[in-house]
């Protein structure tokens, strides 16, 4: 009787485990299917536009005027790439050094204090960053930075947008770089120190020989986060219609194009379809960068744990 009860109990546990496994699989698959569905809808909605317009001409076109049914995405693609590049220059390098300090120099008690502030920075709404940029940074660039370099600017510029984006992407780069550095086996650092290296030289060797791909992956993920930012960029960009020629110029991005135009063209099927194409291009860029960055980070951490 006891053996039969144990047998039935084991069967019950096995069924519960299988049910939990299948349920979690379905939930995980749903997340992936939802992403595919969103991309599919964007592509489907853009078909109406692509039946009458050339994709190449649209990507390289320089003018967007829905009243004349002219749809050129080049200024917005250039603006997206330039402001994101500036953000990576401004925010990427300090973020990596911050991660090095948290991982290698900060005491455990100090790390426990500083790490939550990094996480808190990631939770600040983008509209707050945009408002801070408009209230503080834009006037400062217009009155101080621009004149110092002999440039005339409204303050709503690539430089201002890059600074705000650079601050916004620091949490993700810091967190991922810190994760990668924490995964470096202690034996590597001890081996460098045993050969006479200083603490900094040991860290530098570990980064160069082991952790660098993972840190680059974190920067790539930061790129994906930055290029998809909407609200802050809509507030700071100045909503230019042409491509910027310097860091002092106003600009527009793919996100600001969609955000600023959709309300005006909601009743125009072709214009909505053109914006759907812009959304699909943006989504493709974000997906590629995020997948690439995550693959690099995962491969690096797995290699170091072996």
From TrEMBL:
This is Phosphate transport system permease protein. Part of the binding-protein-dependent transport system for phosphate; probably responsible for the translocation of the substrate across the membrane. GO terms for molecular function: phosphate transmembrane transporter activity. GO terms for cellular component: plasma membrane. It comes from the Archaea. It is found in: Cell membrane. The keyword Cell membrane applies. GO terms for biological process: phosphate ion transport. PROSITE patterns: ABC_TM1. Belongs to the binding-protein-dependent transport system permease family. CysTW subfamily. Pfam families: BPD_transp_1. Keywords: Cell membrane, Membrane, Phosphate transport, Transmembrane, Transmembrane helix, Transport. It is a multi-pass membrane protein.
């Amino acid at each position: 009787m006891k053996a039969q009860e144990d047998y039935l109990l084991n069967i019950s546990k096995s069924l519960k485990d299988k049910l939990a496994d299948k349920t979690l699989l379905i939930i995980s698959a749903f997340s992936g299917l939802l992403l595919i569905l969103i991309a599919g809808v964007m592509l489907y909605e853009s078909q109406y536009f692509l039946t009458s317009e050339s994709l190449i001409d649209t990507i390289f076109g320089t003018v967007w005027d829905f009243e004349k049914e002219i749809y050129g995405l080049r200024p917005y693609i250039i603006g997206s790439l330039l402001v994101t590049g500036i953000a990576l220059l401004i925010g990427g390098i300090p973020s990596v050094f911050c991660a090095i300090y948290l991982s290698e120099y900060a005491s455990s008690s100090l790390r426990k204090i500083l790490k939550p502030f990094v996480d808190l920075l990631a939770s600040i709404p983008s509209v707050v960053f945009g408002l801070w940029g408009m209230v503080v940074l834009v006037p400062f660039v217009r009155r101080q930075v621009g004149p110092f370099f002999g440039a005339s600017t409204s303050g709503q510029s690539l430089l201002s947008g890059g600074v705000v984006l650079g601050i916004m992407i620091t949490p993700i780069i810091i967190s991922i770089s810190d994760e990668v550095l924490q995964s470096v086996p202690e034996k590597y650092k001890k081996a460098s120190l045993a050969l006479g290296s200083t603490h900094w030289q040991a860290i530098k060797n570990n980064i160069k020989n082991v952790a660098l791909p993972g840190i680059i992956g974190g920067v790539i993920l930061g790129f994906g986060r930055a290029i998809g930012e909407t609200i802050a960029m809509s507030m700071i960009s100045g909503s230019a219609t042409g491509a910027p020629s310097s860091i002092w110029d106003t600009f527009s991005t793919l996100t600001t194009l969609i955000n600023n135009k959709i309300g005006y063209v909601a009743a125009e099927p072709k214009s909505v379809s053109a914006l759907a194409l812009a959304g699909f291009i943006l989504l493709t860029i974000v997906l590629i960068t995020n997948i690439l960055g995550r693959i690099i980070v995962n491969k690096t951490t797995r290699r170091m744990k072996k």
